[in-house]
Amino acid sequence: MCYSFSRMFDLYVVRFMKKANAYAVLLVLACFCGCSTAKTASEDEGRHFPAVPIVRTVGNIDVMVDPNVEMMNVLYRLSGLQPDYVPAKEALPFYADYYAKVDDYFGPYAYGPAVSAIRLYGMAYFRPSEFGMYLNSDDSDFILKTDNEKFIVSEGNARDVPYYRFSTVRKAVRDFRITSDYDRFFLSNGAAYGEMIEKHVRILKTSDFGSWLEDFYGIEQKGKSRLYVTKLTGNYGISFVTPKGKPVPYTVVLDQPSEEGSLFLISHEFSHPMTREIVKELYDDTAIRAFFDSLYAKDAFFFNSFGYTDGCSVLNEIINQSCANKFLETVFTEETMLKLFSFLESRKYAYVHDITDFLDNYQNDREKYKTLKDFVPEMKRFLVSLE
Known about the structure:
Mean pLDDT: 88
Shape: globular
Structural class: alpha/beta
Largest sheet: 5 strands, mixed
Helix content: 55-70%
Oligomer: single chain
Number of strands: 7
Order of helices and strands: HHHEEHHHHEEHHHHHEEEHHHHHHHH
Distance between the termini: 32 Å
């Protein structure tokens, strides 16, 4: 259990990678000089790809392995940018077989235009998966036009993000799909993907997570949320924007050897889109900002090593996990919760136990607090009192 929690939190590291001029040269040569691979997509614009998302639905959540998202995870692995990258021969047996298949099949494309684009634009962590979510079924475009003011991605408006704005990146990805015959690989692993999906469907059903999510945050989902599962990389909570401009929680989670590990990741990542605006409001409070900036400064080196670069990012993780803990309390034994709190304290999630307990006041008076946002004034007073 302790290993699972440690492994999961190591995957949350967020830090930007330096761009190398050599990769820029590779991308320019590949995408603009009329080489044979660059011609492939334009000559085959009407191609229908045989691989389609594998989906099972639980309540309001689609559990899936999507060809585009998984393809971007493959490219991310090939790029070498993954901080949690593990060679297949050094991986846990749970992951090793799939790593080896990916490396063997796609190794010849590790320095192709698509991988070079990921390196050039520093598309690390959530960026590849999010990019794949927005690609349409034949990768000819995104589901929203990049000049659409409602097309908001994690880094801002898509029209201001180079790897969305420049069509060369999308075309390089499409070329990779064609030249590598990615669909053949995806289809050949369909049984393994199906097993991952079935496992997460069972976990969602037995834990009744979907009902808890809507009830705890007091937000009725208008569109279906998505849970993308993978063995390559993951653990991101993303506010995906639909073609109508409505944000919907989409998450990517790394398949886990234990059910407890999966429940931990699902609750944490689905909570992120729900708590993001609340954290911003809390951090706007001068006293709270000063308190968590000070907390960050005391252990800045440690926090930076996990990608938390300021007081707001520390507050974000602490508040988000405290909320997720209210779900975990419904499915974990008391012993498992104690192990979780011990792990979180080792990661310097200060006061997470106190905040988790304080949220009982919210749950016990839902007539007064219809949504978690309604409880923010009480959270502000409590956070200031922690000092």
